[in-house]
Amino acid sequence: MSTQTTDPMIGRLIDGRYQVKSRIARGGMATVYLATDLRLERRVAIKIMHGHLADDSQFKERFIQEARSAARLAHPNVVNVYDQGQDSDMAYLVMEYLNGITLRDLLTEHKILTPEQTLDILEAVLAGLAAAHKSGIVHRDLKPENVLLADDGRIKIGDFGLARAVSANTATGAALLGTIAYLSPELVTRGIADARSDIYAIGIMMYEMLAGEQPFRGEQPMQIAYQHANDSVPTPSTKNPNVPAELDELVLWATAREPNERPRDARVMLEQVIETQNQLQTALPTGATSIIQRTTVLPAAGFAATTFGTGDQTQVIRAPQPSGPVAPVSDATAALTAQATKRHNRAWWWIVLFILLAGAAGGVGWALSSGPLSQVTVEPSDVIGQNPDAATAVLTEAGLSVADSRDEVFSVDVPVGSVAETDPALGVPLARDTVVALKISKGPQPVPVPEFTGLAEQAAKDLATTTGFQPTDSERRFDEGVAEGTVLATYGVGPDGARIQLATGNEYFDQKPVTFLVSAGAVPDVTGLPVDDAIALLGTKNIAATELPERVFSNDVADGGVVSMQPVTADTPLAPGDAGVNLVVSKGPDLVEVPDVVGGSLAAAREALEGAGFVVGDVNSSLPGDFQNDRRVVVKSLTPGDEQLLRGATIEINLNY
């Protein structure tokens, strides 16, 4: 009860239509809830796929396949499918709700069913399955959990989650689909299922109903699968002597190891079940006790407790014994007695034969499991990569012997000192006590580094592959002096995992990755280009270019042109796709007003011109040098005499006395 109250689905409205009331059951792919269809005001069972499987397309396809398979069937013994859809991330399936129990619940409570109960259930199950086989659908997962017994007496097959069309009969994937206890030999060994595989599962269910247990049992699923593939199903009468011989034969027919020896589909077996029912009901004359009798629940009232116990147990009402003289044995009775004696003698022959076969099977089983013919399988992952002592312990525990000598081999994947290989190889059945030799890794094989520098990129990669290296994606760097596509340097991975530069002739390990640094050619010269044109040209070389916000004066580059470019990351060679460059853009020449110094002294003129950013050049005068600083000497004119000049221009001064 606490599980339901904490289930977040309880009370949820699915797709605006289905109100979830309580949880019914939970399986490997989905959970089934009791819900109310608010539109039609009826109770339904809604099956919701587990959330962690929603992203698995294979499971989702199986879930949708169940809806499609079941929706194609319209039969009283098949659970009806009403709707299928998706609400948010939930895939759901709406089915008919049956108030009752499963066949598994019935077997858990009663363990063994009567022959009549078994045949009644089989008749209903086979009728529904016959409709599926007629429609070309193989159920593939028949088991007591999928047989529903309603309170009103209806019996239906459900859960077509693994159903497939007969034409698509090959199983996919490494894992077998279906419950291992009911898988047919061909599904275990070849992954193939058809209608006869469903018949095999019916035969196993029939055995379980009559004998009270499954025919094959084991601690591991593969042990059970091995028995299905290699052993024949015994008769249920070996566990329950009350089982009629006719039902023994029916079980053996349905569970024959060869598919061709079974009924070809459910319709054929259904006809035989009905015929068997008629044979068992008419085998005895009128008034005699039948082997197959209807099971009746007797009420407590009206019966003495001393005769029927507490009155709430299931009782079999037998025909009353005649009170008068015994009538003479009729011809029909004599014939029946002869037939029963013949069947009894035949049964003894079957028992003797079974004992002989069981003894032989036991001897073979001992030889295969513990004797000289036994084989063991050890997975490589349990040994490869382990240290030698641990690997020896695993092999010894499995029943194998380990050789004293240990060879060393080069290995790319296995660390030095660990087991790299075995002789013979593991992963296949080996005879018990087989001697296994361990081969210990001495690491990757050293290989000399060829001369890669100066080669074209593809030529370097080809050479790396042929000499035992694994070339990775190349790196690129601009280089003014090396042609585009030429290898500049080669890098690998050192013993500590750090990146190292490989030198020609040095040893590097076999199958290790190498990375080539390849020239991307020269960086385009964009000096003087308009800034937009420069950015576009650099973009063709996968260089991100950004204009600096502050433009500078340039006497050589026009306004808006690129004066220079600076790498974003200083002291790092420029490579395509890296941080890129910053562009220094011109705002034109730096023009300055020439100060008016004519008529002033030479000293004042020099100070004014230099203060304005000009360079004072020659001083022109016919006067001797000693007279140039005379206070009577003034500036006559300037050369050049423009009103504006470039900052830094040289001006000559002409003097007058």
TrEMBL record:
Q: Which GO terms describe its molecular function?
A: ATP binding; protein serine/threonine kinase activity
Q: What is this protein called?
A: non-specific serine/threonine protein kinase
Classification of source organism: Bacteria, Bacillati, Actinomycetota, Actinomycetes, Micrococcales
Pfam families, per database record: PASTA, Pkinase
Task: Indicate the enzyme's highest-level EC class.
Answer: transferase
Q: Which residues form the PASTA domain?
A: 377-442, 443-506, 517-587, 588-657
Q: Which reaction does it catalyse?
A: L-threonyl-[protein] + ATP = O-phospho-L-threonyl-[protein] + ADP + H(+); L-seryl-[protein] + ATP = O-phospho-L-seryl-[protein] + ADP + H(+)
SUPFAM superfamilies for the chain: Protein kinase-like (PK-like) (SSF56112)
Q: Which residues form the Protein kinase domain?
A: 18-274
Kindly give the PANTHER family that the UniProt entry links to this protein. Answer: MITOGEN-ACTIVATED PROTEIN KINASE KINASE KINASE 20-RELATED, SERINE_THREONINE-PROTEIN KINASE YBDM-RELATED
